[in-house]
User: What shape does this take?
Amino acid sequence: MSSIFKSFIIVLPFVLMLSSCKNIDDIELKGVDTFIFQGFENNIVYFSAGLNVNNPSGVNFKIREVNLKTVANGDFLGTLNCTDNVRIEARTDSVYRVPMSLKLANIFSGASTLYKISRQSKVNLEVKGYIRVRTFMISRKIEVSESQVLDVPRIR
Assistant: This one.
């Protein structure tokens, strides 16, 4: 009898944890509110973006890794990465400051493409890759393949 009770005590927390994870809803990225250019070093552009995120589920997420191949107006720019872990709170609809870096594939063509984009009012931005998120003991790799026309902010 005691061995059944011990196994019940061991299995119960795992069953409760897995049953509580059934209500995890997908987070929704509503757009970019702000963009702050931070610098340029070697072939890496550093910036931060204010992402408007809606998390309807009751679970906090932590963005652990971002790896997105970035194409602007048909020109390959490079790989977009997140430089810090970002915590997305449960049941919130708010703006999160996300520090990012864009590693240019080629410094000359990347710089010329960025200059060309800065002179336009709109850009067709395509990203393809993955974002890895984690909550407690569960990690999920989310494949991303998006294309969107964006307004170009004026850098003064």
